[in-house]
Amino acid sequence: MRKAAVNRLKAGMVVSRTLFGREGQVLLKAGTKIKEKYIKSLKRLGITGIYVQDERLEGIETAEVVQDSTRQEARLLVKELINEMGRNKKGKFHCQQEKKITRVVNQIVEELLANKDIVVNMDDIRTIDSYTFSHSVNVCILATLAAVKRDFNAEALQEIAVGSLLHDLGKVKIPDIILKKKGPLTEAEYAVIKSHPVYGRALLSESALCAETVLNVVYQHHERLGGQGYPQGLSGAEISVPAQITAVADVYDALVSERYYRKAYLPHQVIEMFTSWAETYFDVEVLRTFFSFLTAYPVGTHVKLSNGKSGLVIKNKPGFPLHPVVRVLY
């Protein structure tokens, strides 16, 4: 199985992992033979790649970080919540929303605990949807897995999962014209954006989800180790560890995602960026935790080696995101 760019798909290839749409509907089932009309539809939907079978990688499988059904449920919940909070001028949670959030994050925690030794490729957790909804779920999965790696207890895992899933909730108070602006923000617009952690904490503080860890994650996820962040300009140990973890997950997913104003960076480029930011913006130990499970070159990636030979990535080694195991082809 390997990830193939849609513009390089050919009729007759076989889908190896079920592809889901924006509303959780199945677009292409695993085992489906690709036809030209499917390729055209994928391009029209803006899908850039899918997993296909490859006999050169026979017997090599990649484990799911969380089940597709769990990921889809979480994404739809975030979408529903953000839409409701945007319409609700009082901005209050109701009991059913709190119960749904608790159930979904408990499922995510349970599945990550069962897969704590997994190596993560962002393509494995990304869904086809607007950035806001998929980003919230991606950050939740990444931050919670980092907390699992650091042996957080059950209560702390649930709280970081809730906080990271809802870390951008305050953006419901930010006008779309600013959130979706394609060009550079003005100083005044950036000041408005920087208010979303304050709004997020206020929205959550009156709910049953207002544990201190949750509020810290929502309020502090844009703080930076050297005091360069917002809204308070906290530094070092003033920033809670769950918030520091969520900050890394937030920035990582943002950089590997395509945005209104730029193309997505490649995973290996982002890992190199984080390496250069260690001790300035992000804690070294927190980064080491992420590097223990992130991968720059997913299984099935075609790579050119330093000796000029070509190969396919067949395995990733925990803790060595830039050094995969490669099967040489020619």
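Second entry:
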Amino acid sequence: MAAGIVVAAIVMAWLFGARSLNAVAVTALVAVIAAVAQVRLADRPSAEHSNPPAGFPGDTRDVTVSVTGTQGTIVEASDPLDSGLSSAGNTFSASIPSTVTYEVTLAERGVQSIGPLSVHLRDVFGLVTQELEIGDSTRVIVYPEIYDVTGSTILTAELQRNRQPERQEIDQLREYVPGDPLRDIDWKSSAKRLPDLVVKEFIGRETTGTIKIAVSTDRDTVEAATSAVGSVGLFFARAGLEVGVTLPDGELDPALGETHQDELLLLLAETGPGTIGEHDWAEADVRMVGEDGSVTVDVNGRVTTFEDMRGADDSDQSPSDHEGPETAAVTAT
């Protein structure tokens, strides 16, 4: 803009003579001095980001940026995003002080970063600009994609194995209906009501079982492997079992509750490829191997692939031959 004023002054001088040049030059000089003063004397602005909550790929989150400093200073700002995030609104113009909210889409698993804010300060005439980086970055946790595996016969069988009701106190007697277990028939009471049969209903507390999951994965399969651990782990956790995991980048002891589930998802967001120790592998109830784009799932000797689990077509393929975490993935048949 300042260069444009110089060009205009030359043109004016050529067309109308020195007097016009003097008039334009004085005006330009005053404008430039005022612009420099406005930008250089302004306080360094500051920026503060909100902390978007964690989410899953495809979720959207609002990001709020508050910019403060010398009142009236105009900023053109851009909020840098990691490659795992996307937004069409992270570039904006505003007059300080200002608060701007834009939407960001969570695209890829991981600990993603937003900021620091990149700003160009400019005067009201647009003659002078100054580039700054202000504020701190903020992180957004993107969990792995979670799939519905409730149709898996292998997982359902393992769940039932770990959830045996305690048959202690009788709650009530009721009439037998087809499908009731024969062991629940109260033969003494039924003898008084023949030909009707009576069954016992128990005040049952389901015992809390424990599931330990271990995973080893190569770099090409780490996304699918973390999705597999998250999907299977949440399946068991939401059914009331204590779930523990051992991953290449950390482990989580078995526990219950939503907080534990959040900790599991956070660990999965942060983990990368690698293998685990032989002892942890041997102790696991569920072993997963991610290799060459395929994730094999071994549930106490019953083997399938994560893809088949998601499609509810996970009949046992073969006896388990997984001797350790470096075993290759089994291709579905």
